[in-house]
Amino acid sequence: MRFLQPGTLEEAISTRVDNPEQSVIIAGGTAVVLMLQHGLIAPEVLISLEKIPGLDSIRIEDNRLHIGALAKLGDVADSRLVRQYFPALFAACAAVGNVRVRNQATLGGNLAEADYASDPPAALMMLDALVEVKGISGTRQISLPDLLLGFLTTTLEPDELITGVIIPIPTEQPRMAYLRYNNRSSEDRPCVGIAASATFNDAICTGLRLTVGAACEIPTRLSEIEALAVGSPLTDTRIHEIAEGYAAGIETIDDLQSSAWYRTQMIRVHIQRVLKGLRDG
Amino acid sequence: MSNATLKVNGKEYRLSFSPHQTLLHVLREELGLVGAREGCGIGICGSCTVLVDGRTISSCLMLAVQAAGHDITTVEGLADDEKLHRVQRAFIDHFGFQCGYCTPGFILSTVALLANHTNPSAEEIREYLSGNLCRCGSYPNILKAVMSLSDSEV
Lengths: 281, 154
Hints:
Radius of gyration of chain A: 19 Å
Number of helices of chain B: 6
Distance between the termini of chain A: 53 Å
Order of helices and strands of chain A: EHEHEEEHHHHHHEEHEEEEEEEHHH
Distance between the termini of chain B: 53 Å
Number of domains of chain A: 3
CATH topology of the largest domain in chain B: Ubiquitin-like (UB roll)
Strand order of the largest sheet of chain A: 4-5-10-6-7
Strand content of chain A: 25-35%
Order of helices and strands of chain B: EEHEEHEHHHH
Strand content of chain B: 15-25%
Structural class of chain B: alpha+beta
Oligomer: heterodimer
Radius of gyration of chain B: 15 Å
């Protein structure tokens, strides 16, 4: 195996094009090194993005927050901008693994791996984030639903790299939360993760965004159920109805952690907790 | 094989190793620095904690080639000749261990914590160290040791 450290994005992309089948891209490495150690991948070439300058910045431009693909999850969680505008993303990134994993794992790597048992993707989908992707033919911006295809699978073409994430800053600051539920120990992977944001005019809910992650192959947002919240107060009955809608509408995963049935129950329970928390401010 | 220079505890080592070797493997097998231990091998237990540019990482989840060009600190680099680092001293004074397997990881995590927060609360210490596991269950004494170094100690 060769370890290459291209100094520019263009060089990284052309290295990838030269070795489409035999290469794997490595950012922080928490996922790739684990897969290497367990013999799940055996690439001839590892292409490290670490030496490409400027890919780890977190900044506001044109009223949108730009997070570089190489920003560490810990730096995203510690960012004053992220905490101010997107507390749900802060909470999701701060919930990943432990401090060491967050010191090494990157936001771009997290998305590219497309592991369902993860926290940031649900928060990013809830926030309508766009993923910036660069390939030989140029740059494109795609939504999370258009990036994530399924279990460890994305729609990225072999020549494409994630360069960053762009999140629109809302005009009116909503109430936001990310709730991660672990059914075993705290260092475990999440069983269910709920990302939500809501705006209110007095007690009337004027908008709800709700995404369930870690329980299903791809984080899931059900706009027709979200719409149930709008235009009336978030009563316990209404919240129950929304939780039932998500529980019924999501195909949950059976794995070593939990059965699909259990995850469905936990979606119902935790959506109610999150929404009551947002309502009661 | 990769040729790379690793800077460990202030000293530079010119090494040749296979690029799939982890930093943990190279520290232990090439440099004889056995303070970092393999526990779980998947980044959870914290026994292989080292500092890279002052930040804790799991050396079982980082390739040695990734660490080239960075400042690596292992527990062996903390003491100043015969004088123990104050975190090491506090762990001894408060018996913050039984078997000692997890101790280097806990000590390095504490060093990194105190570098950024001079007066962490008990809650902040618990949260920060939650990624280091002690199978002997010495947590109460570990907490006492770290609290003794915090300015917020009551």
